[in-house]
Write a structure and sequence with these properties.
This protein folds into two domains: 73 residues, no CATH class; 185 residues, no CATH class. It is 52% helix and 9% strand. It is built from 15 helices and seven strands. Strand 3 and strand 4 form a beta hairpin. The N and C termini lie far apart (45 Å). The structure holds iron/sulfur cluster. The site of iron/sulfur cluster has 11 residues, from helix 5. Iron/sulfur cluster binds next to helix 5.
Length: 331
């Protein structure tokens, strides 16, 4: 069984009490059944508090937020469970976060979540390099269609090459990724596999582009579920930035995270839209890219309803048409 991970994966360390936006704020942590049973069985003051704040609905147990944060979060920013019982007592969600696992049966890809500020620093500033491969005993059974996965892996490499080409400005590279995504979708649908002609695609992108309106993009995000007042304030008063290397790294993170997921439903096109729209939004909002991208991830990537709304809008929303997006990318 092959395991792939970015080279910074093992260098991640939680900032704990120094974290500027703890994962213990705003989210109701889902507690796995074993941890919930253990917590409820604990004696003493910690057990009493846990019995008070654990809530089970429809078979899922969550930690009820108190004043918008996890009730186990102490004044000094440390976790009460970890401090009193050790790291091994954490529930699976807290033990794993911000580590991501995409298990495809016979291979696994690991990554870090952008919604953690420390992980975001690594994702947006680490030099680009291939994933590190390591073999683990056991073989596993592919949980996917081999031909589809072959096409997706090959097209993801091409998309990563396009976005990493430093001679191409970031906005143009994203426009090319968008057009290349359309071509890769057609290959997935049984179309002929042809080499991607960057120069021809760029002139096609310029011909197709129509003036886009950032306000239409912002309005769309304003009608999604909003978690924090800060996010809403940013959407209402954006401070557009220029394209920068951080946006290139952001696009690589999104391509690596979402491209292969099309193996589940053969829909690559909506994920490519998600990638381009996300980069456009973060550029449009401006501010420090690490904190803007981290908040974006917390608000959007970590909310399945918001992600689904964007994937659906890829086909129907007037702000998400190819010509409008190309207009914004090439502006
Ligand atoms: S968000 Fe990241 S750095 Fe902050 S407390 Fe959570 S895991 Fe640690």
């Amino acid at each position: 069984m092959w395991i792939y991970k970015p080279d910074y994966y093992d260098r991640f360390r939680c900032a704990a009490g120094l974290c500027p936006d703890s994962c213990c704020q705003q989210w109701e942590v889902q507690v796995d059944a074993d941890a919930a049973a253990y917590y409820r069985s604990l004696p003493g003051a910690l057990g009493d508090r846990l019995r008070e704040v654990l809530r089970t609905e429809d078979g899922d147990t969550v930690m009820t937020l108190v004043d918008g944060r996890c009730p186990m979060w102490r004044e000094d920013g440390l976790c009460r469970i970890q401090s009193e019982l050790g790291e091994s007592a954490l529930c699976r969600t807290c033990r794993d976060f911000p580590r991501l696992t995409h298990d495809y049966g016979d291979f696994v890809e690991l990554g870090l979540e952008l919604s953690c500020p420390e992980a975001a620093k690594w994702i947006l500033s680490a030099p680009y390099g291939p994933l590190i491969a390591r073999q683990r005993p056991g073989s596993g059974v592919p949980a996917y269609d081999r031909e589809t996965m072959g096409l997706l892996k090959a097209s993801r490499e091409t998309a990563l090459t396009i976005i990493s080409e430093r001679a191409i400005p970031v906005g143009e590279a994203l426009a090319l990724v968008l057009l290349y995504g359309c071509q890769a979708q057609s290959e997935l649908d049984g179309g002929e596999t042809v080499p991607f002609d960057t120069a021809a695609a760029l002139s096609e992108a310029r011909e197709l582009a129509r003036p886009g309106t950032p306000s239409a993009l912002l309005d769309f995000f304003l009608q999604l579920e909003l978690l924090t007042p800060r996010w809403e304030a940013m959407l209402r008063s954006p401070r557009p930035a220029r394209w920068a290397d951080g946006h290139r790294a952001l696009a690589r993170y999104l391509i690596r995270r979402y491209w292969l997921q099309a193996v589940s439903d053969y829909d690559l096109y909506c994920r490519v839209k998600f990638i381009t729209v996300s980069c456009l939004l973060i550029k449009t909002l401006g501010g420090d890219i690490v904190s803007t991208a981290q908040l974006f991830s917390k608000e959007i990537e970590n909310d399945a309803d918001n992600v689904d709304a964007i994937l659906d809008a890829a086909y129907s929303h007037p702000a998400f048409t190819d010509d409008r997006l190309l207009g914004l990318l090439l502006a």
